[in-house]
């Protein structure tokens, strides 16, 4: 890349960002902050300016924030051309052009793709269209669900006990609404945190009055004569009457619009290198197409160079900043996106946080507090080193464990702690379900080789 | 005024809830809930909360660059590690 090209790009080039949400906005701000003076276009299919999603399943459902007022604050003026309410429908890599749903085409010199994910809809489309069947991803979804909860439904039924589904159940209980949760796995949050922690989450739900059904799947949704949902049928032959059904089955990556573009994009997201440059379908890195946020999957040195696909707020921000930086600088100044994965959730009054990649862990050790008190830190080990940690109402320890993960500290952890530790010093199996089976909303997906596959050893740094 | 709290950074010290109780509240022992759209009359309290958060987790706009400054320095700190 001739150096003068980058100088020209920074001065008067055209940068297009597709996906006008958290990652798109933070990338735009970083571009300007780092001196990009050219033309900047943000394309988003939602008619709204970038807003924040985590409050939608928390403060909004509790009535503590309006679903229409979660717009993200701006860190600075970005002087961009906004194309909101219009989807990108295609990409011509060689002509460097993005096609839009309204027939327009937008040319770019560099492109950032930040199209995120959407909620996975109910598998039977006709049942999914019944009045009262809801998804929760967008602010319109949240406004609709909030109205329905406010109307005082007799019972809410949540399909899928990942983080989002569990947060919905929590909001229902807190506002006094009867709620049933169905989960295919043995407990809530199993895909994200494993069976040991999942059991704690299960107790938390049942003690708060959630009618929790595990090891079951929903077989059909039944409507009444005017097309409103009225009952849910389960694989154990039980039937639950409900007038609101929240489908919380994880997400689908927004890559359909890239079909046929030649980019390495598919149902698992868009593969990119650690510098956020997208791969084409041949596995060759592009130099003018970048990716960030939920739609990206990128290799991480700390986690065996697995391609991590993270549905984490903090990842969207950090990856957007790195992508934006790399888009407008010379090769030698580029930075890798080696963000320490971190996630939070809050349900039934408990603050849940994690660092690292729990689903990669095979063993778990409770190092602080106690499971029974729901105030603890659990550390995940993988092949003799610390790979992740989770806390329930004990977040102040996580920074420490993040450093342990960075150092590749040995597992089981060797240091004594002052806390009582009824769980003892012994690690136990973390009890993740078979990775080949679908779970709901694990929020971290390992899309490289399987950690269970011991035959494949990858040493990219050795020559 | 719009605001967002980076809840990865937030350590639940409740300093913000003390300074701007109409915007921030603790929920349970250590979760923070907040209204991402604070009413205009909260401007001064919000500015104080932004400035006082020990981990600079709060970004708000229209506060004379306070949010910008806090996110910028946190980013640098992360990169420097
Ligand atoms: C209810 C809920 C609760 C959450 N809670 C937490 C939490 O507690 N902690 C946490 O860490 N994370 C949480 N998250 C996840 C977090 O919100 C995401 O990681 C973050 O939004 C990712 O940002 P993004 O910009 O990559 O993608 P998105 O926010 O998904 O944005 C992508 C945007 O691109 C648009 N788009 C898609 N296709 C096209 C196209 N073809 N053309 C134009 N535009 C397009 C989409 O409509 C969308 O606006 C939560 C998410 C939800 C939905
Ligand atoms: S002051 Fe900062 S760290 Fe404390 S609760 Fe508020 S946002 Fe969190």
Describe this structure in words.
The complex is a heterodimer of chains A (463) and B (81). Chain A contains eight helices and 30 strands. Chain A is 20% helix and 30% strand. Residues 448-459 of chain A have low confidence and may be disordered. Chain A starts with a helix and ends in a 17-residue tail after the last strand. Chain A has 463 residues and is of the alpha/beta class. Chain B has one domain: Alpha-Beta Plaits (2-Layer Sandwich). Chain B has helices at residues 15-19, 43-52, 66-80, and strands spanning 3-5, 24-27, 31-34, 58-60. The radius of gyration of chain B is 12 Å and the shape is globular. The termini of chain B are far apart. Classes of the chains: A alpha/beta (463), B alpha+beta (81). Chains A and B meet through helix 7, strand 24 and strand 25 of A and strand 3 and helix 3 of B. Iron/sulfur cluster binds at residues 5, 10-16, 24, 32, 53-55, 57-58 of chain B. Chain A: This is Ferredoxin reductase. Chain A: InterPro entries: FAD-oxidoreductase/Apoptosis (IPR050446), FAD/NAD-bd_sf (IPR036188), FAD/NAD-binding_dom (IPR023753), FAD/NAD-linked_Rdtase_dimer_sf (IPR016156), Reductase_C (IPR028202). Chain A: Its cofactor is FAD. Chain A: Residues 343-411 form the Reductase C-terminal domain.
């Amino acid at each position: 890349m001739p150096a003068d090209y980058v100088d020209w790009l920074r001065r008067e080039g055209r940068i297009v960002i597709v996906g006008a949400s958290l990652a798109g906005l933070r990338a735009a701000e970083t571009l300007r902050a780092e001196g990009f003076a050219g033309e900047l276009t943000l394309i988003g299919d939602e008619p709204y300016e970038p807003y924040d999603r985590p409050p939608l399943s928390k403060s909004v459902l509790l009535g503590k924030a309006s679903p229409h007022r979660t717009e993200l604050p701006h860190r600075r003026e970005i002087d961009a051309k906004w194309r909101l309410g219009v989807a990108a429908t295609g990409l011509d890599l060689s002509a460097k052009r993005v096609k839009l749903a309204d027939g327009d085409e937008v040319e770019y010199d560099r492109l950032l793709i930040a199209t995120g994910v959407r909620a996975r809809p109910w598998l039977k489309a006709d049942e999914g269209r019944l009045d009262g069947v809801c998804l929760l991803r967008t602010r319109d979804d949240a406004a609709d669900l909030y109205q329905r909860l406010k109307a005082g439904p007799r019972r809410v039924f949540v399909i899928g006990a990942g983080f989002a589904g569990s947060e919905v159940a929590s909001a229902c209980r807190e506002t006094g609404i009867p709620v049933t949760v169905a989960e295919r796995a043995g407990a809530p949050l199993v895909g994200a945190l494993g069976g040991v922690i999942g059991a704690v989450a299960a107790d938390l739900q049942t003690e708060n009055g959630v009618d929790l059904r595990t090891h079951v799947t929903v077989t059909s949704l039944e409507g009444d004569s005017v097309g409103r949902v009225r009952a849910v049928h389960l694989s154990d032959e039980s039937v639950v009457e409900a007038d609101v059904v929240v489908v919380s089955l994880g997400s689908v990556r927004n890559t359909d619009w890239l079909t046929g573009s030649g980019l390495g994009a598919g149902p698992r997201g868009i593969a990119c290198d650690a510098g956020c440059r997208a791969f084409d379908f041949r596995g060759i890195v592009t130099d003018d197409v970048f990716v960030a946020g939920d739609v990206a999957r990128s290799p991480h040195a700390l986690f065996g160079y697995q391609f991590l696909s993270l549905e984490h707020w903090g990842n969207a921000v950090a990856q957007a900043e790195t992508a934006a930086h790399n888009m407008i600088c010379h090769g030698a100044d580029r930075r890798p996106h080696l963000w320490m994965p971190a996630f939070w959730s809050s349900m039934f009054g408990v603050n849940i946080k994690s660092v690292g990649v729990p689903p990669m862990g095979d063993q778990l050790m409770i190092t602080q507090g106690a499971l029974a008190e729901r105030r603890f830190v659990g550390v995940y080990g993988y092949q003799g080193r610390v790979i992740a940690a989770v806390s329930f109402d004990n977040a102040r320890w996580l920074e420490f464990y993040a450093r342990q993960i960075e150092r590749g500290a040995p597992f089981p952890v060797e240091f004594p702690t002052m806390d009582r530790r009824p769980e003892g010093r012994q690690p136990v199996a973390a009890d993740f379900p078979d990775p080949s089976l679908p779970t709901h909303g694990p929020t971290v997906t390992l899309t490289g080789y399987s950690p269970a596959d011991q035959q494949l050893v990858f040493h990219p740094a050795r020559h | 005024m719009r605001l967002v709290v980076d809840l990865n950074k937030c350590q639940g010290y409740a300093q913000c809830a003390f300074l701007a109780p109409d915007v921030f509240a603790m929920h349970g022992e250590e979760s923070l809930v907040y209204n991402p759209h604070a009413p205009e009359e909260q401007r001064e309290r919000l500015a104080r909360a932004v400035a006082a958060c020990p981990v600079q987790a709060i970004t708000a706009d229209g506060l004379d660059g306070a949010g910008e400054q806090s996110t910028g320095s946190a980013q640098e700190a992360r990169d420097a590690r």
